[in-house]
């Protein structure tokens, strides 16, 4: 450290100090230049520019969408069919695409599909009557007049069905071997 | 072992094991060690990076690099090449205010390191 003390004392130290500072600065700059080049090099070699472009496009679109929401001239009140979402699209209150039910084969409107499926697959009295011939007799024996029948939970406690989440208990119609399913 | 691909970064040669004499460190090396040990180098790097990004210097450099890569073909460029491409312009286009501020800070450090 005598070295340093001498540097401070002599006037030449100022020149050396400035030179040293320049050298340090140059080192820092070189490191940063290498970092910049390195990042671009990596992106180029890995072919990541497409992803960057896609990300930029996403950001741009979402900024656009946000601007559209903020714009007071857009009608955002629930007006039946005329609600406009952030992409500028309107949707009917009931989904109106039509497709075929995979259970019974009928053409069903999408917005009406859930209630249809309830009836079609099991909760309704009529659905249960769509049984195969071999189990019809057994079914009629139980459902006539008896309050505590095997299937009464399905008809008397509709709440059970509302809880079932899309895996409704299969009606006996589905059991082709005629066995009775206990709830 | 034969290398089929171009080396992307130049490595300095491995030091010769027979040349094991104790070397006197240069002033620059000593300063560098002090900078690193005190954490000042890290802080300076962050400071410079931030300033150069904010003033648009980094974007300018990236634009130049990307243009060069596009021209040469993205699989046909080495890191050394890219560094060489932007170093002269990079050094020259540092805003004076940033350079002055950094130099001032470094000189302060040097004085405090000497005491």
UniProtKB/TrEMBL annotation, chain A:
Biased composition (Low complexity): 146-159
A single BP term in Gene Ontology: chromatin organization
Signal sequence, start to end: 1-17
UniProt keyword terms in alphabetical order: Activator, Chromatin regulator, Metal-binding, Nucleus, Signal, Transcription, Transcription regulation, Zinc, Zinc-finger
One GO location term (cellular component): DUBm complex
Subcellular location: Nucleus
Region (Disordered) location: 128-183
Compositional bias (Polar residues): 132-143, 174-183
GO molecular function per UniProt: zinc ion binding
Pfam families linked to this entry: Sgf11
Family: Belongs to the SGF11 family.
PANTHER family attached to this UniProt entry: SAGA-ASSOCIATED FACTOR 11 (PTHR47674)
Name this protein carries in UniProt: SAGA-associated factor 11
Species this chain originates from: Escallonia herrerae
Automatic annotation (TrEMBL), chain B:
Cellular component annotations (GO), alphabetically ordered: DUBm complex; nuclear pore; nucleoplasm; SAGA complex; transcription export complex 2
Sorted UniProt keywords: Activator, Chromatin regulator, mRNA transport, Nucleus, Protein transport, Transcription, Transcription regulation, Translocation, Transport
Subcellular location: Nucleus, Nucleoplasm
BP GO terms, sorted: chromatin organization; mRNA export from nucleus; protein transport; transcription elongation by RNA polymerase II
Region Disordered: start-end pairs: 1-22
Signal sequence bounds: none
GO molecular function: transcription coactivator activity
Family according to the record: Belongs to the ENY2 family.
Function recorded in the entry: Involved in mRNA export coupled transcription activation by association with both the TREX-2 and the SAGA complexes. The transcription regulatory histone acetylation (HAT) complex SAGA is a multiprotein complex that activates transcription by remodeling chromatin and mediating histone acetylation and deubiquitination. Within the SAGA complex, participates to a subcomplex that specifically deubiquitinates histones. The SAGA complex is recruited to specific gene promoters by activators, where it is required for transcription.
Subunit structure: Component of the nuclear pore complex (NPC)-associated TREX-2 complex (transcription and export complex 2). Component of the SAGA transcription coactivator-HAT complex. Within the SAGA complex, participates to a subcomplex of SAGA called the DUB module (deubiquitination module).
PANTHER family: ENHANCER OF YELLOW 2 TRANSCRIPTION FACTOR (PTHR12514)
Protein's UniProt name: Transcription and mRNA export factor ENY2
The organism's taxonomic lineage, starting at the top: Eukaryota, Viridiplantae, Streptophyta, Embryophyta, Tracheophyta
């Amino acid at each position: 450290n005598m070295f340093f003390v001498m540097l401070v004392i002599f006037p030449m130290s100022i020149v050396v100090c400035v030179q040293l500072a320049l050298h340090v600065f140059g080192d820092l700059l070189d490191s940063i230049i290498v970092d910049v080049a390195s990042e671009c090099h990596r992106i180029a070699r890995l072919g990541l520019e497409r992803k960057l472009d896609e990300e930029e496009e996403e950001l741009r679109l979402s900024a656009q969408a946000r601007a559209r929401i903020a714009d007071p001239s857009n009608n955002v009140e629930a007006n039946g069919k005329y609600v406009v979402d952030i992409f500028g699209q309107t949707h009917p209150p009931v989904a109106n695409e039509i497709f075929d039910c995979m259970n019974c084969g009928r053409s069903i409107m999408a917005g009406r599909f859930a209630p249809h499926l309830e009836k079609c697959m099991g909760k309704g009295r009529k659905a249960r009557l769509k049984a195969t011939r071999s189990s019809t007799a057994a079914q009629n024996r139980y459902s006539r007049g008896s309050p505590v029948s095997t299937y009464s939970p399905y008809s008397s406690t509709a709440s059970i069905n509302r809880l079932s989440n899309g895996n409704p208990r299969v009606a006996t119609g589905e059991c082709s071997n005629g066995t009775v399913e206990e709830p | 072992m034969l290398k089929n691909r171009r080396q992307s970064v130049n490595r300095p040669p491995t030091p010769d094991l027979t040349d094991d004499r104790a070397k006197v460190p240069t002033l620059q090396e000593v300063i560098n060690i002090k900078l690193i040990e005190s954490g000042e180098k890290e802080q300076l790097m962050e400071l410079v990076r931030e300033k150069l990004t904010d003033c648009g210097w980094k974007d300018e450099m990236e634009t130049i690099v990307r243009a060069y890569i596009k021209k040469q073909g993205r699989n046909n460029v080495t890191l050394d090449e890219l560094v060489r491409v932007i170093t002269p312009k990079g050094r020259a286009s540092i805003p004076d205010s940033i350079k002055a501020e950094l130099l001032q800070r470094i000189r302060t450090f040097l004085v405090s390191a000497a005491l």
